[in-house]
Amino acid sequence: MKVLWIFAHPEQRSLNASLMREGLRELTGEGHAAVVSDLYAMGWKAALDADDVRTDSGAAPGAAHAARPARDPRLRIGAEQELAYAEGRLSDDVREEQRKIEWADTLVFHFPMWWFGPPAILKGWFDRVLTQGFAFGLHGADGRVLRYGEGGLAGKRALVVTSVGARESGFGPRGIHGHVDDVLWPMLHGTFWYTGMTPYEPFVVYGADRLTGPSGDRYAQALRERLRTLPDAEPLTYRSEHGGDYEGDLTLRAGIEPSATGLAVHRVRRRGASSETCAEGAARTARMR
Ligand SMILES: Cc1cc2nc3c(=O)[nH]c(=O)nc-3n(C[C@H](O)[C@H](O)[C@H](O)COP(=O)(O)OP(=O)(O)OC[C@H]3O[C@@H](n4cnc5c(N)ncnc54)[C@H](O)[C@@H]3O)c2cc1C
User: Pocket residues for ligand 1 (CB within 6 Å)?
Assistant: First the structure.
């Protein structure tokens, strides 16, 4: 595998930094290539703004806003990102991350969960790097929009490695925090699957704030195992937008799981399985852990 490991934690002596080192040791020991984007260490700029798009390839970042034509003084950020990508005017730090993605076949997103999502620095990486024209907003030869199973990042694996303060039961099928696959839905489905990447079952360290040395070691071992088996692992099976399951208005066809609603209806049922409700799917996932 060619792995890009995107890491978002400010402390090199943290549990998560230690897990990353273990993971990288495993990957290189198995003969895989790995490149790290350690966002805090890089001083990564989190906020997407006008500085991301230069007026021309020689101009300094930040000049874009001043030079915008008087008839449209607004910063139309998505369109301007797309144009800047096409014309080679994206800021150097964004373009460098895109080159790493182009090289990689596997992306690992590693972060402690903060307020039910990634730290702002990683959210900013998504905002700034996964630009229109590069990761999404592409069209097939027949003119259809490529997303949810197709897109600029098609063919790449995506694995979340995260830690949470809460206990596992609270993120389980009936847990108060919501099932962990649902909590991570904005990334797994809304970002990875949307841009064509293939998401895998997230690797989650539960009760992280209460961990002691030995339990930390167990998670390190489990992470090594997960990485070792990733090339042959079964991905999360979301439905493709153009696979025949959706109507033109992007709702699931009436004949598919007619009485089910919620996020789990967008997962394809395993072959041979009887009707799998959201709760049953979540219970199955929990049992596999
Ligand atoms: C702003 C914010 C928002 C949060 N929101 C949520 C939320 O929405 N949901 C939720 O569940 N949690 C939340 N949390 C908790 C957060 O997810 C945890 O604090 C985090 O996952 C712990 O990871 P860490 O790497 O920072 O751990 P650290 O603080 O570095 O370590 C955690 C424990 O692991 C032990 N440890 C074991 N092995 C090692 C090792 N090899 N190296 C270092 N330490 C080790 C340490 O002794 C320590 O006790 C939030 C925390 C913050 C700060």
Answer: 9, 14-16, 18, 112-116, 163-166, 208-209, 211, 213, 216
Using the atom order of ligand 1, give the atom closest to the CA of residue 112: 21
Q: What is the 3-state secondary structure (H, E, C) of 210-270?
A: HCCHHHHHHHHHHHHHHHHHHHHCCCCCECCCCCCCECCCCCECCCCCCCCCCHHHHECCC
Give pLDDT, residue 281. 39
On the question of pLDDT at 282 being above 50, the answer is no
Pocket probe for ligand 1: among 113, 203, 224, the residue whose CB has the most ligand atoms within 8 Å is 113
Nearest CA to 2 out of 29, 23, 33 is that of 33
Average pLDDT, the chain: 90
Atom of ligand 1 nearest to the CA of 116: 8
Q: To test ligand 1's pocket by mutation, which of 209, 215, 219 has the most ligand atoms within 8 angstroms of CB?
A: 209
Number of C-beta neighbours around residue 1 at 10 A: 16
Q: How would residue 67 be classed by pLDDT, with cut points 50, 70 and 90?
A: low
Q: Would you call 4 helix, strand, or coil by DSSP?
A: strand
Dist. CA 106 → ligand 1 center (Å): 25
Read off the pTM.
0.92
For residue 21, give both structure tokens.
């080192």
pLDDT in tens, 185-242: 999 999 999 999 999 999 999 999 999 878 889 999 999 999 999 999 999 999 999 9
What integer pLDDT is reported at residue 64 of this predicted model? 59
Residue nearest to atom 40 of ligand 1 (CA): 15
